[in-house]
Design a protein that fits this description.
Number of domains: 3
Structural class: alpha/beta
Largest sheet: 5 strands, mixed
InterPro entries: Transp_IS110-like_N, Transpos_IS110, Transposase_20
Organism: Marinovum algicola
Pfam families: DEDD_Tnp_IS110, Transposase_20
Distance between the termini: 55 Å
Radius of gyration: 25 Å
Protein name: Transposase
Helix content: 40-55%
Order of helices and strands: EEEHEHEHHHHHHHHEEHHH
GO molecular function, one term: transposase activity
């Protein structure tokens, strides 16, 4: 007889439900959210565990690796599908969630989430740290802008290099403002030092990875965009067609059809929001800052002329993702069969 296990994972404790192939509950228990503790709770002599399922979450990748090492067949389930399956549940508890997950595993009514490799997880951790530091630098600068603006002092346009001198110049002669600006500038300087270290690690990582170097041959794609795409996709073979990556990243339109009603809406925004944002920025760069006219840019400009620039950026983002995945699969650089860019600055964008 085959048995199936559903895990409802929280930070400290995991609710466990074991059912047989007929859907009957065999065992319900709780264990610490540790791979060895969960394995000990579900393992039983003479009981062959066919499948273990858990919902995607903060601990899912770590528990997946640990339970696989314990010898179980494990699937991480997409959270949206699990929530939709439980939408009719009148009483929602962790115990009931574990029961529902076990039944989904038995019936196979769920969508598996790709569990990323350790290298991809490390890259994403670096990218997350960079995003956090960039946001804090921006927040610090905006706080100084607001403090100075209250006294009629306007920063206007200032680059990262001229920011410090401009802030000191405006605060000169105001004792309170001088103290505030100096404190904020010290925080900003420390953030910029740590940001430079993280960006140095990302640059070194991109240079050492042949796939990332291939992706960076695309105009408008730099270190951050290439590494974000590389770490999010992780395994290109899980997409049978290169164009499937656009829907996976939420860059295809929503559609609601019933009878004579057929509504096509905005993009779904499913998948990784960070990668989608990076692709938007790269697409905007291709259509704006990149001087070289490529087939992708000319196609996007035709769309912008026919509709608007915003829709053109979305369309270029989707096609850019498709091209990047095709380049990755074939191992071919973007300029391999075309004239190389006239200047390296035209293709190097962070």
């Amino acid at each position: 007889m085959e048995f199936f296990v559903g895990l409802d994972v929280s930070l400290d404790e995991t609710h466990i439900c074991v059912i047989d192939e007929g859907g009957r509950i065999i065992k319900e228990t709780r264990a610490a959210s540790e791979p060895d503790a969960i394995a000990k709770a579900i393992r039983h002599q003479g009981r062959r565990i066919e499948h273990v399922g858990l919902e995607a979450g903060n601990l899912s990748q770590w528990l997946f690796e640990g339970l696989m090492k314990e010898g179980f067949s494990v699937s991480v389930m997409e959270a949206r599908h699990v929530r939709a399956a439980f939408a009719a549940m009148r009483v929602k508890t962790d115990r009931h969630d574990a029961r529902g997950i076990a039944q989904l595993v038995r019936l196979g009514w769920f969508k598996r989430v790709h569990v990323k490799s350790l290298d991809a997880q490390e890259t994403r951790a670096l990218l997350t740290a960079r995003t956090f530091l960039v946001e804090k630098v921006t927040a610090t600068e905006n706080s100084m802008r607001a403090a100075l603006r209250n006294f009629g002092l306007k920063m206007d346009a200032a680059t990262r290099r001229t920011w410090e001198a401009r802030a000191r110049e405006l605060a000169d002669g105001h004792e309170v403002l001088e103290g505030i600006v100096e404190a904020m500038l010290r925080v900003r300087a420390l953030l910029l030092i740590e940001l430079a270290k993280i960006e140095g690690q990302l640059t070194a990582l991109a240079k050492s990875d042949p796939v990332t170097r291939i992706l960076m041959t695309m105009p408008g794609v730099g270190v951050v965009v290439a590494l974000s795409f590389r770490s999010a996709v992780d395994d290109p073979d899980r997409f049978p067609r290169s164009r499937d990556v656009g829907a996976w990243l939420g860059l295809t339109p929503r559609r609601w059809q019933s009878g004579k009603t057929d509504i096509v809406g905005r993009i779904t925004k499913a998948g990784d929001a960070r990668v989608r944002t990076m692709l938007f920025e790269a697409a905007a760069t291709i259509l704006g800052r990149v001087r070289i006219m490529s087939p992708l840019k000319s196609w996007g400009l035709r769309i912008a002329k026919r509709t608007c620039m915003k829709k053109a950026i979305v369309a270029v983002s989707r096609k850019l993702a498709t091209i990047l995945l095709a380049m990755w699969k074939s191992g071919t650089a973007y300029w391999a069969k075309a004239h190389p860019p006239a200047c390296a600055a035209d293709v190097a964008v962070a």
